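Morning run. Coffee first, then this:
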Amino acid sequence: MIKKSSIRSFRDLNLYKNALNAAMEIYEISKSFPIEEKYSLTDQIRRSSRSVCANTGEAWRKRRYQAAFISKLNDSEGEAAETQVWLDIALRTQLISEAQWRKLDEQYEIILGQLVKMINEPKKWCIPK
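And here it is:
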């Protein structure tokens, strides 16, 4: 586990690492989606999974302002939940296996837990004035 004092960048956060790994796994899996899903499911699931990473990075840079920090983390939380919805649809349309769905859903439950913990304890993360 990384000690808080050794976190110098959002890239050091376990949350970011987990979100990036999940987004890359989704990217690889979605390469096999049919072409008719290109502008719907494929683009949407890639965008929402990447947005978890992007909003986490933005939140890290907004740590001077607790409300802005929490707001960006809330955006990440929403994008993570949206990704779970797209995964549900991919499963129901048989574009991913139940094993793939279960693995990714578990990853997003961990990511969501990490986000909620940061949202609920912003003083641990924000830069004191």
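The chain has one domain: 9-26+37-124. Good start to the day.
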